[in-house]
Amino acid sequence: MSASDTKILHTAPVRIEAFEFNLPPLPEQKAIAAVLGALDDKIELNRWMNATLEAMTRALSHSWFVDFDPVRAKLDGHPPPPSTQPPPSSPSTWKRRPSATRR
Fold it and tell me: How confident is the model at residue 8 (pLDDT cuts 50, 70, 90)?
């Protein structure tokens, strides 16, 4: 390696051109790319879900703690919104819903 009066080490282009390395066979490269692509898709989906959940949390918190919607509904004699009602106490009373189809 060479340096020219700097603390950052550089190398000559000739050394870069001469560098040799092994590549996996093309089918293995494609398999690796497929896995990395799937991971990228999952990361993007998780980011989208986190943004959606954060927006829902902000809206719910604003409704409860700024606008006092559950308190106002109760004072007006209305049932509380579904988001403020506790879930059924027993799984035997839960209703089955079809799950969303995956792509």
Answer: confident
Q: If you average pLDDT over every residue of the chain, what do you get?
A: 82
CA 23 – CA 58 distance, rounded (Å): 49
Q: Rounded to whole angstroms, how far apart are CA atoms 29 and 36?
A: 10
Cα–Cα distance for residue pair 61/67, rounded to 1 Å: 9
Cβ atoms < 10 Å from Cβ of 84: 15
| Cβ-contact 80, 70 below 8 angstroms | yes
Tokens 């969303």 belong to which residue?
A: 100
Residue 93 has pLDDT above 70, yes or no: no
Task: Look at residue 10 and give its three-state secondary structure.
Answer: strand
Residue 22, SS3 per DSSP: coil
Give pTM, 2 decimals.
0.51
